[in-house]
Amino acid sequence: MADGGKGRNRAAPERVEAWEWVPPLPVPDLTKSAAAEAEPEALLASFDLNVHWLRGGFRASLFAPTDQVSQAYLDDLIATDLVIVPEMTRRGVAIDAGKLLRIFARHNGHNLDTLQRSLGYDTQSFNDLVDHFCAAGLIFRVPCLPDEGRPDIYYFCDTGVLHRLFNPKWQQIGKGRKYFARSWEGFVVRTICQRYGLEAEVFVWREADLDEIDLVLRWPNGECWAIEIGIGENKRPSKGYKGGVRKLAATEFTIIHRGAIDWVDGYERMTLEELLTIRP
């Protein structure tokens, strides 16, 4: 595929990654000189995870003084330096870069075959494009097991960028909630994988009988985490999740949501912050 002229002519923007998060430091006693000697890295890592999810990890967006400043930065990044978009497919079909990125955003959290059907590209051009976007750090993909023939699921790496590509009418509550739910799911998946899963087999569990687990991490020593993810405050284990946990013989089964830290039906529920705190 031919490449357009758009590309990174400037240094890559600085980033702060969600998996670097640590619990907030106690409010310092400003009368003590020690407060002025706090390590910059420690202060940086105490950002709010929800803000990171909404604004993404580019420092100029994450730490912007207002949402409007954050959004303007991301809009400029998308228009100028986010990623090189090919001008056409291998078969000579012209590619509208803006429309292409919006379609990728719309299908975030779906299997790749759903995205290909929406785009209508030939398989070779589509695979080239997905590989290119993965290498550029725009998206990442997670395989599905036990059916290895099922296409991977993909997510955007930066959810701030993803949200700026969403239809402006979509909101977290009401119309568009499902898009934000998949955004949150991808944010949690990437954070956990980068924090804990670099030496693990990582996959999504999907079976024809609807057994489903959003994220599985399995290590050679037999340790296996089965993680269900919900954007709400009262996520409960589904029948399919329970079935998948049994089939995988998971050693740990956790529900990540944005509500209470408790147990329900024998499964532990907690926030992402709590997980990152108890497993530093």
List the helices and strands and how they pair.
Layout: H1 40-44, H2 49-55, H3 59-62, H4 67-80, H5 97-106, H6 112-119, H7 123-135, E1 139-142, E2 144-146, E3 153-156, H8 159-165, H9 177-196, E4 201-206, E5 212-218, E6 224-229, H10 239-248, E7 252-256, E8 262-264, E9 267-270, H11 272-278
Parallel strand pairs: 2-4, 6-7, 7-9
Antiparallel strand pairs: 1-3, 4-5, 5-6, 8-9
Polypeptide structure, described:
This protein is of the alpha/beta class. The protein has a domain at 84-278. It has helices at residues 40-44, 49-55, 59-62, 67-80, 97-106, 112-119, 123-135, 159-165, 177-196, 239-248, 272-278, and strands at residues 139-142, 144-146, 153-156, 201-206, 212-218, 224-229, 252-256, 262-264, 267-270. Strands 2-4-5-6-7-9-8 form a seven-stranded mixed beta sheet. It has a two-stranded antiparallel ribbon with strand order 1-3. Strand 6, helix 10 (239-248) and strand 7 form a beta-alpha-beta unit. Helix 2 crosses helix 8. The longest helix has 20 residues, at 177-196. It is globular and about 55 Å long. Mean pLDDT is 90; it is low at 1-8.
